[in-house]
Each structure stands twice: as structure tokens, then as C-alpha cells.
What we know:
The chain is an alpha/beta fold. It is built from eight helices and ten strands.
Amino acid sequence: xxxxxxxxxxxxxxxxxxxxxxxxxxxxxxxxxxxxxxxxxxxxxxxxxxxxxxxxxxxxxxxxxxxxxxxxxxxxxxxxxxxxxxxxxxxxxxxxxxxxxxxxxxxxxxxxxxxxxxxxxxxxxxxxxxxxxxxxxxxxxxxxxxxxxxxxxxxxxxxxxxxxxxxxxxxxxxxxxxxxxxxxxxxxxxxxxxxxxxxxxxxxxx
Length: 206
């Protein structure tokens, strides 16, 4: 799959490494494609990675991951808008510092591109758990929400599985706040209670 990773920080870089290793073609969409840190990431991933402007990365992609700071999302979306239509879009952004309003940006993405398949995913853990999604020998679950459409959901789950996580669908975007509450749960346990960032969730059934 052709994937545009918007942002080259810890989350974007870690997921891009995993997807590149799984055989996907990753293009980092960044303000400065020639930035040394970005070029180092591209070189590390190898032949399956390159860097370009945000607009060009999205134009050539089937799937788009947003992994930029929350403060940058409004400007980023204003520059791409309808180019996201017809694509699988993953929102991994977290506006954790906002006292009011949503933590996610799915509504803003959907407003900019009403014909995109928008999913809320890769937002409930720190990047360390994407780098190594097995804890104590157990595969971590990744809870996510988005359209029930078979092809789009299958593609989203494939990208989750290719990182090494077990995808658990919680329903449509009307359940997005439930996923965001799992982020808050992880943050309280990992950071406030100082259990450590190498902590993840698992659904147990019988």
C-alpha cells in the first residue's frame, strides 16, 4: 500500500518503520523533506521510504496517517483539504492539552474531506508500544473506531496488524470518545501512577 505519513516524530517515524518493513511504500509528508532528521529516517527504512511535501505525499497515497502535533492540524488540513477524499485516513493526533473540545481531529478531517474513510487509531499508547507491541510475551490490542465499510475497515486492520498489534474495532466514529478515554486511562496508569510507558491493554474473552 502507498502510505503518506504526515509527521516524522516518534509516532510517525515508528509506524513508518513498521510499515516499510512489512513491504508498504511510505512517503513522509513534511514541511522540509530535506531536513536531516527526515532524511535519516528515510535512509533507515530503505527503499520503501521517501520524503516529500505534505501535499505531494497525500496526492500519491492510498492511506494517510496524521501524526503531527495537535497545534499544527488546522494549518495542515487547510493545505490539503479535499485531496484526502477517497483515501483511508488515520487520525493519531492527540490534543491532550485542550481544556475543552475533542482530543481527536476526526470531525475536522471529515469536514475537510467528506468522502474520506476516517479512522481514529494509533492514539492510545506511547510510541514505545508501537515499536514493540508485545509485552511480557503477549500481543497488545489496539482499540480503534471508524466506518464499518468492509474494504476500508479491512485495510485499516491490516495496517494495525502490520505494526504487530491486534486490532479491536469498537464501532463507528460515534464511539470516538470511547477510544479517547482509553488514551486517558493509559496516561493515568502509565504516567500519573508511574507504572511506566511500556504498558498496553488486552481484551480477554472466553
